[in-house]
Amino acid sequence: MTRNFCFFVSELEKSIMKKRWVINTPPEENKIEELAKKLNCNPVIANLLMQRGINSSEEAQAFFYPSLNMLHDPFLMKDMDKAVERLDRAIAQEEKILIYGDYDVDGTTAVALLYKYLKYKCNEDHLEYYIPDRYTEGYGVSVKGIDYAAENGFSLMLITDCGIKAVEKVRYAQEKQVDVIICDHHTPGDTLPDAVAVLDPQRKDCNYPYKWLSGCGVSFKLVQAHSLKHNLPMSELYKLLDLLCVSIASDIVPITGENRILAYYGLQQLNSNPSLGLKTIIRISGIDKEITINDIVFRIGPRINAAGRVESGRKSVALLTADEKFSANEIASDINNFNDQRKKLDHDITEEAIEHITHSVIEPSKKTTVLFNPGWHKGVIGIVASRLTESFYRPTIILTESNGLATGSARSVEGFDLYYAISQCSEYLENYGGHKYAAGLTLKLENIEAFKQKFEQIVSETINEEMLTPQINIDAQIKLSDITPELYNMLQKFAPFGPNNTIPVFMTENVINFIGTKKVGRNNEHLKLVVVDDTRACNDRSGIGFGMGNLYEQVNSGSFFDICYTLQENEFMGKTDIQMMLKDIHFKEEEE
Fold it and tell me: What whole-number distance in Å separates Cα of residue 386 and Cα of residue 418?
């Protein structure tokens, strides 16, 4: 974004949104003390563990030291035996296998994972991958893709990160003598496709213990099952965890249970010995430190996504499966250029959308945002929907025109089931899919206005005012004196952080400005503060509040205020200390 645009959005957010702080209900104090004693740790750590459902030293051991031996048996997944049997038959009979996946990060990493595994198990000439074109084929299984398989002699399609609702498309594939195995993680419809095997832990009849795998994660379970059946070394399989970790982080699935184990070891692989394609992306992303989930979400993932947004997701798979340095560098350079194009498109459309909303008489009073512009680039409307949701904090759908239809991406606010709301407007839709917080949809151009009205009605009837106010969930209330190197080091063991295992947020009440508070940044837009709490002990603590420079006068007024923050290690001029990363400040007069 340009500086002026950033300033505009920042000021807009400040003017319309006051954040609501919600402190997580702590467990009983005696139980916290009991666990802290067992683990010989700070009660703050015991509180955080218990909030994550960890109530014993054995569970804490498993949490702090995850093991790949804790992964579930893949054959617990419904249809896994059928999938492995059909895959074995295809390999044994030298059938041609087509791996088909979505064009986003989850889909392309899933395709790359299956391809890299299978190319050593079958004749590589009989193995190919297919990524649908976002613009001519759209999301999901396409007729064009099935025709390609049939016309080129592929008798088996492995469909990953989509397909769970492709009932008619799978039937069409059968008519073309193409068998289908589906590896999906999205919510099924009322009827499952009649495929050879449908692997999806979200199936109502699937008893797989962990329900929140990514699409790439379901594909990993397939190759894990195949490896177990043939007694293949797991060490070879685990080399693919860098791809899986990228999918887990980018698809925003919960980093709990099995996903946390896979992400933990996937990060190790990314940091120690990533595949050539990912190593090249890491280099062009400018990451020169230990890679974290955040680095994947904000630097690696967007570059992989950019190819499918601007040109073709096939290019991302080519990079992720590359085994020759020159070709990897050449593809990575293209993808980096796509990412630059994506940024400009994202900026321009977001700016245009915000201007429309702020200058509209009707839009500000609505509970939803639904905008349509036939000229908006299809590849970035999901990003724009996310940005508008952050700025105006209400369920948002951004639509553009593609192949004579309106196609769109939807994003929700915390606690609101967007997928349900969209499903209640199905009479106006040609197609839709997704989950509680994100979805995609397609409708006829003449149905846009009727859909907008119905969607606004459904959301207005089902959302409450609290959901329309940005919320900060606070894990624990602490004193500044609780912030010690020992506490910080223990907090690092909670990583990798992500959905359902977020970086702990703390709150400290009644702090007051101390020596050294100032505005920083090129335009004094940030706030560097030093505070003490009401104990007035020698425990001053520094913090940084990005975009909070406008609060300097209130902070410097001599009054007490409350802060919420995360903790981060900060190194400056050879000295390392623990710094508070401010998320919000509440001033006493605001609460009276």
Answer: 13
